[in-house]
Amino acid sequence: MALSEATVKVIKQAQQKMPMPRSALLFALRTVQIDEGQVGPKEVEALSELFAVSPVQIEGVARFYDLLSGEPKGRHHVRVCEGVVCVMRDADAIWESLGTQMEDIFPTNIVALSRVACLGHCDHAPAALVDDSLVGPLDHDDVREILEGIVGRDADYD
Ligand code: FES
């Protein structure tokens, strides 16, 4: 099975707490994303067995959500909002700055960058999601701080 014993155990515990085991699917998808770094074909197959539903159904739910990925993207993920409010408050410049500064700080593919729809953090525009933390309003000084913060938190970074 593509999932670790610990991941399977956590998912089964969640299934037992739900009125219907399949109600734990979103929790399971999020858990797999965190533990395995992706919800790829092998993970979908394993979840299909655990939930006794077809892989197509698992895949359909997994591909609906931006925060789940079918391939490994890096240990950390910075998602910059491209919603209207954030774009009006210079999110495009933040995005450009992140890309440029990331090349200076991370020689390897440790951090994935992506643009996402509104994060629901419009009152803090321009906003971003750094791993699981919402941040904003961002300015150019924050960009370097975010990237250096990731270096500080990443025990494997050298
Ligand atoms: S438009 Fe960016 S958080 Fe809503």
Helix content: 40-55%
**Text of the CATH class of the largest domain:** Alpha Beta
Overall, the morphology is elongated
Report the CATH architecture of the largest domain: 3-Layer(aba) Sandwich
Ligands bound, unique: FE2/S2 (inorganic) cluster
Strand content range = 5-15%
CATH fold field value of the largest domain: Glutaredoxin
Biggest sheet: strand arrangement: 2-1-3-4
Would you write up a description of this structure?
With about 160 residues, the protein is of the alpha+beta class. It has two domains: about 5-65, Orthogonal Bundle (Arc Repressor Mutant, subunit A), CATH 1.10.10; about 75-155, Glutaredoxin (3-Layer(aba) Sandwich). Helices cover about 50% and strands about 10% of the residues. The chain is built from seven helices and four strands. The chain has helices spanning about 5-15, 25-35, 40-50, 55-65, 85-90, 90-105, 140-155, and strands at about 75-80, 110-115, 130, 135. The protein has a four-stranded mixed beta sheet with strand order 2-1-3-4, covered by helices on one side. β3 and β4 (about 135) form a beta hairpin. The model has no long low-confidence stretch (mean pLDDT about 90). FE2/S2 (inorganic) cluster binds near residues 118, 119 and 125.
